[in-house]
Structures are given as structure tokens and as C-alpha cells.
Amino acid sequence: MIASLLEIGLAQTQELSSVGFDLVNVFFGLIAVVAIAAALKMVSTANVVHAALYLLVVLSSVAAVYVLLGAEFAAATQVLVYLGAIMVLMLFGVMLTRAKIGKETDLDYEHRWVGVLVGILMFAVMGYSLIEEFGDQKIPNDNYAPIQTEAVANEIFSTYIVPFEALSVLLLAALIGAVVVARKD
Amino acid sequence: MYLNQFLIFSAILFCIGVYGVLVRKNGVLVLMSIELILNAVNINLVAFGTFHGQAAGQVFALFVIAVAAAEVGVGLAIVLLIYRNRRSIDVSEADLLKG
């Protein structure tokens, strides 16, 4: 039954991606505006806790972009790992370093224009090369159908099994390292 | 949809993240900006995966998410250590290696 439901959902998505093509674009525009505005507020706000909450908005927008791209498993992982675990860690970091509740004065370097210059230059170079290389390439409409989690799992446990095992060792090393670094002697 | 709208969106997020890393003094805020950069890269990976109709893009994005989790764990431990030793997480004051 679940399989047939999935098939109906797939068919509907395919219909949507051909009929409601403009609608997807509208949603992408909305998400992009929200994400960029929140990111700008995150790097400019004078309140550390607010910065963490703006980061939360950016991360959820990125999860929404994954859904638009049909990457459901990546979206679910983004919500679980980033919104769930990493944001809690960040807020713990804010709490344990006793950040002030409210505005702080000394959060930025004085020479902000250097950062602005570097950011704009990088964006100019990247934007130019992206437009030059991928100017009018479109994502084929069929590709918006969700990539099944089964396909992702097959890739991980066949082609990418060695990186996957290396990753588990890395996580173990990070766990031990964090405990060793942070414990009190 | 154009492939470029995703790539340029991610380029904008990446540049904002770089600005944050360069300008912020607070250690936790620097870590948050690094998270922003990693997310921008992930959008690229997933967009190219969808462009080619393959699951590999998503797989790499998942790997990046796992590495980011490890990075935040160790990074926050280091920030906490700096705070414990110096009573401040201002990264501009942690300059013992400066010649």
C-alpha cells in the first residue's frame, strides 16, 4: 500500500513539475530571499543568541531548497542533524561562554570594509565564472521527481563504502578529541 | 528551472559566510559562519546531483553534513577551552603564536 501511495505521489510530483513550473520558481525565490536576508542579519546582528536563531532560519531554508531539488533524504538529515543537534550545540556554546543576553558591543573587527571587499570580489569571480559556464543550462524536468532513499542507500553502501567507513572513524576520533580537549584536569 | 539559480544562491550564501568568518571576533559566531559556508557547498552538491539525475550528489552532501557535525564538536570544545583559560572568546586576543 505504501508503495502504491508513493507511486501516486511520484506521479503527482511529475505533473506538478511540468504544470506548476512557475510555482516552483516562485517558491524558490521566496526561500532564497528569506535565506539571504537571514544570513545577512546573522553576520551583522549585535546579539549572539539572535545570530544563532537567524542561522536556524538559514538552515531551514536550505532544507526547503533540498526538497525543491527532490533530495528528500538530504532534507530530512539537514533537519535532524543541523536544526536538531548542531543548533543545540551552538546554543550550549553561547550559554557556556556566558554571552550577554542582549546587545554586545565588541563583536566585530573595526575594519569591516576588508570583509565586504573580499566577499564582493569572491562573489564577482564566482558569479562571472558560473554564468560563463552554466549560463542557460536547465535542470531537466524529469529530474525533479524525488530521488528515492533506496537509491541513496545503494550508492552509500556500494560505491562509497570506503569513505563511509572512514567517516565513522572520523566521528569516533572527533568524539574522543572533543572529550579530551574539553575535560577539566 | 535553471541550474544557475541554485549555484548563484549558494555563491551568495558562501560569500556572506566568508564575510562573517573575516569580520566576527566572537569564537562561536565564527563557527556559525563556517556552518553557513558548509551549507552553501551542500546546495551545490545537491543541485548538481539533481542536474545529472544521480543520487551521488546527495551522498556527498550527507558526508559533508557528518564532517560538519564532527567539526562543530571539536570546534566548540576548543572555544570552551579558550574561554576557560582566558575568560573571553575573543579570537583576536588568542594570538600567542604571533611572531
Any key phrases for this structure?
heterodimer, A: 185 residues, mainly alpha, Four Helix Bundle (Hemerythrin (Met), subunit A), 2 domains, 7 helices, B: 99 residues, Helix Hairpins, 3 helices, 0% strand, elongated
Report on the structure:
The complex is a heterodimer of chains A (185) and B (99). Chain A has 185 residues and is mainly α. Chain A has helices at residues 2-19, 21-44, 48-68, 72-96, 112-134, 149-158, 161-182. The model of chain A has no long low-confidence stretch (mean pLDDT 86). Chain B has helices at residues 3-23, 27-52, 56-86. Chain B has one domain: Orthogonal Bundle (Helix Hairpins). In chain B, helix 1 runs antiparallel to helix 2 (27-52). Chain B is elongated. At the A-B interface, helix 2, helix 3, helix 4, helix 5 and helix 6 of A face helix 1, helix 2 and helix 3 of B.
Which range best describes the helical content of chain B: under 10%, 10-25%, 25-40%, 40-55%, 55-70% or over 70%? over 70%
Find the count of extended strands of chain B (DSSP E, 2+ residues).
Answer: 0
Shape of chain A: globular
* Terminal CA distance of chain B: 52 Å
Helix content estimate of chain A: over 70%
Largest sheet of chain B: none
Question: So what's the CATH class of chain B?
Answer: Mainly Alpha
Q: What value does the average pLDDT of chain A take? A: 86
**Annotated CATH topology of chain B:** Helix Hairpins
> Can you tell me the CATH superfamily of the largest domain in chain A?
NADH-ubiquinone/plastoquinone oxidoreductase chain 6, subunit NuoJ
CATH topology of the largest domain in chain A, by name, is: Four Helix Bundle (Hemerythrin (Met), subunit A)
**Oligomeric status:** heterodimer
